[in-house]
Amino acid sequence: xxxxxxxxxxxxxxxxxxxxxxxxxxxxxxxxxxxxxxxxxxxxxxxxxxxxxxxxxxxxxxxxxxxxxxxxxxxxxxxxxxxxxxxxxxxxxxxxxxxxxxxxxxxxxxxxxxxxxxxxxxxxxxxxxxxxxxxxxxxxxxxxxxxxxxxxxxxxxxxxxxxxxxxxxxxxxxxxxxxx
Length: 180
Description:
This protein is about 0% helix and about 50% strand. It is an all-beta fold. Strands 1, 2, 3, 4, 5, 6, 9, 10, 11, 12, 15 and 16 form a twelve-stranded antiparallel beta sheet that branches. It has a two-stranded antiparallel sheet with strand order 7-8. A hairpin with a 2-residue loop joins strand 4 and strand 5. The model is unreliable at about 95-115 and about 175-180 (pLDDT under 50).
């Protein structure tokens, strides 16, 4: 890789950069600092952007809270799929809709959003939940769809694209705001 510092504002692909920059040997941008908050694929970014070897945006800091897939993402670092959809980021749990249900069915596409901890959640391409920490009682179907598991809060779970359980781990942590 080649690295350096822009002596003045530089424009690459219609986006303005300043300061430190790094290029792959192929000449494609590896990372650079934005000159100003910039909207890319509908998301407003600030600071440093990271790109893969083929020029696709991999990571960046959101400049504003953003709603995607029925969840509100904090203005923090997000990772992206090549099509620009969010792969993972920090969900602001306080903005999630409140539900009276004490359990949720992970086979429902978005019910899972009500039961994930703000610290950790990852998404498949297209927005379906891939993994996260449960914050309420939750029912998750087995991979074959014939049976289900009832989980207490504090489990980390990983799901397949149809919302069925692949892996689980009891974290043994006390999650804030769940002392009911």
